[in-house]
């Protein structure tokens, strides 16, 4: 007989609470699961990043995937509710209970155990087979909850009386009827089915398009103090100026952002398409950001379809405090992104004809190359001496700083630092797009570009 079980039979006195290490272990495991789920829920709600989950890391891929949501809300929120109810039912066993209440608590524990165990198998399976990346926080939460569920299912106190019914009140009968176990397990599996079905059928829209000054009904930006943690001494908390990026051509191959606060000369920057195109999109990306890597293929396809109608300005924007003074506490930070951004701009500076091939090579693998690999590829494309000379050009650091400033202004305007970012006229697209069709819809809506297949 274990700590969680209690002799079955008939009695009139309340059932004494089970004592011992086993029950305390269940409480501890569920407590850890609640804390972990609560932390992940807070990260999702605050649009922050989990500790140690830099862009491109396994946990970042998992937490930013469609499978991190259920029916459009962060899956950690319903998980926290389930774990909390499970813990509450387990804690009820710490004190004497009448037989009916004891049986009712175990009915809930059995169903919740199946839900929790099934959810753990589902989510770990998604990480292995679909996302192909692992979240250390998720594994910890699911592992603790799964162990607690297994301990409970292995120690169900069954009633000795074969005639006892599950729902009828019988204060003299202790335990859960064995013949009702299958029904309880099926109820739990139905809960797992609701979880999996909701995720499969309802895909979270991970892209957000903000038109600053319009969505809120005024032209004021959200306060920067609500965005991130303590400010660096050299980072402005608020910047006077227009809220809308108002991205537009103001002259021959000259793009204005925020009513002239930033001027981008198309002849000086990496672009997709011809600089003489009538419509322009500014793309902010980080070579190490996996959503940015997916976005590159979408942008390339859309520009190819629209041909001379559209030019895309490609601005490497490292999410790393090594070269980006605007990366504050609460924002994601990535290793190697500064080095890769410098190399990309150096290739452009040394040989513009070689840049598209370098960019294709950078974005083609699932994971970004290491800086030494990228440097070797860059030297092969433009020559070692030319690459070294370009890397020493002060323009590279100046351009990276400008890109970081544009990203910061976008963060102030939208309240979100999410990457990648596309500036389309008055709007800012934040986060990944689902497909090239998704981008074409945005281009028509915000830039008035209509794509008609076969018309080009």
* CATH T-level topology of the largest domain: Glutaredoxin
Low-confidence residue ranges:
5-12, 215-238
CATH class of the largest domain: Alpha Beta
Q: Report the β-strand fraction as a percent range.
A: 5-15%
CATH superfamily of the largest domain: Glutaredoxin
- Count of alpha and pi helical runs: 13
Which range best describes the helical content: under 10%, 10-25%, 25-40%, 40-55%, 55-70% or over 70%? 40-55%
What does this structure look like?
With 456 residues, the chain is of the alpha+beta class. It folds into two domains: 9-201, VKOR domain (de novo design (two linked rop proteins), Up-down Bundle); 208-226 and 234-447, Glutaredoxin. 47% of the residues lie in helices and 10% in strands. The chain is built from 13 helices and 13 strands. It has helices at 21-45, 58-63, 76-92, 99-131, 136-153, 181-201, 290-306, 337-350, 355-363, 371-382, 384-391, 394-414, 436-447, and strands at 9-10, 69-70, 73-74, 173-174, 208-210, 248-251, 254-257, 262-265, 271-272, 279-285, 310-316, 421-424, 427-430. It is elongated.
List the helices and strands and how they pair.
Layout: E1 9-10, H1 21-45, H2 58-63, E2 69-70, E3 73-74, H3 76-92, H4 99-131, H5 136-153, E4 173-174, H6 181-201, E5 208-210, E6 248-251, E7 254-257, E8 262-265, E9 271-272, E10 279-285, H7 290-306, E11 310-316, H8 337-350, H9 355-363, H10 371-382, H11 384-391, H12 394-414, E12 421-424, E13 427-430, H13 436-447
Parallel strand pairs: 10-11
Antiparallel strand pairs: 1-4, 2-3, 5-13, 6-7, 7-8, 9-11, 10-12, 12-13
């Amino acid at each position: 007989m274990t700590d969680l079980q209690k002799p079955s039979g008939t009695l009139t006195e309340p059932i004494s609470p089970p004592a011992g290490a086993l029950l305390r272990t269940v409480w501890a495991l569920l407590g850890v699961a609640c804390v972990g789920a609560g932390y992940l829920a807070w990260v999702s709600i605050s649009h922050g990043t989990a500790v140690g989950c830099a862009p491109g890391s396994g946990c970042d891929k998992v937490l930013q995937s469609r499978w991190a949501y259920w029916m459009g809300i962060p899956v950690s929120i319903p998980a926290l509710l389930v774990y909390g109810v499970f813990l509450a039912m387990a804690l009820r066993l710490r004190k004497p209970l009448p037989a009916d209440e004891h049986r009712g608590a175990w009915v809930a524990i059995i169903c919740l155990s199946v839900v929790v165990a099934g959810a753990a198998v589902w989510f770990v399976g998604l990480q292995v087979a679909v996302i192909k990346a692992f979240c250390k926080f998720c594994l910890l939460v699911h592992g603790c909850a799964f162990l607690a569920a297994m301990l409970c299912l292995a120690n169900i106190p069954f009633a000795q009386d074969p005639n006892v019914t599950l729902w009828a009140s019988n204060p003299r009968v202790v335990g859960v009827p064995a013949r009702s176990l299958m029904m309880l397990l099926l109820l739990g599996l139905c809960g797992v089915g609701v979880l999996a079905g909701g995720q499969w059928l309802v895909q979270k829209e991970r892209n957000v398009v903000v038109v600053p000054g319009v969505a809120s009904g005024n032209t004021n930006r959200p306060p920067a103090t609500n965005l991130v943690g303590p400010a660096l001494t050299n980072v402005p908390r608020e910047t006077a100026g227009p809220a809308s990026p108002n991205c537009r051509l103001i002259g021959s191959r000259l793009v204005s952002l925020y009513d002239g606060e930033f001027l981008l000369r198309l002849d000086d920057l990496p672009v997709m398409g011809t600089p003489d195109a009538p419509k322009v999109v500014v793309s902010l990306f980080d070579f190490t950001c996996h959503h940015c890597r997916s976005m590159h293929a979408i942008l390339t396809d859309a520009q190819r379809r629209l041909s001379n109608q559209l030019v895309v300005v490609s601005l490497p924007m490292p999410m790393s405090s090594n070269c980006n003074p605007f990366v504050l506490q609460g924002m994601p930070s990535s290793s190697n992104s500064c080095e890769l951004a410098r190399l990309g701009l150096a290739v452009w500076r040394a040989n513009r004809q070689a840049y598209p091939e370098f960019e294709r090579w950078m974005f083609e693998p699932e994971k970004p190359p290491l800086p030494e690999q990228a440097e070797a590829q860059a030297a092969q494309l433009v020559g070692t001496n030319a690459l070294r000379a370009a890397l020493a050009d002060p323009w590279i650091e100046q351009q990276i700083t400008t890109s970081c400033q544009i990203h910061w202004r976008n963060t102030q305007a939208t309240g979100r630092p999410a990457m990648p970012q596309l500036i389309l006229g008055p709007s800012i697209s934040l986060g990944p797009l689902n497909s090239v069709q998704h981008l074409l819809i945005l281009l028509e809506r915000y830039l008035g570009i209509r794509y008609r297949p076969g018309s080009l």
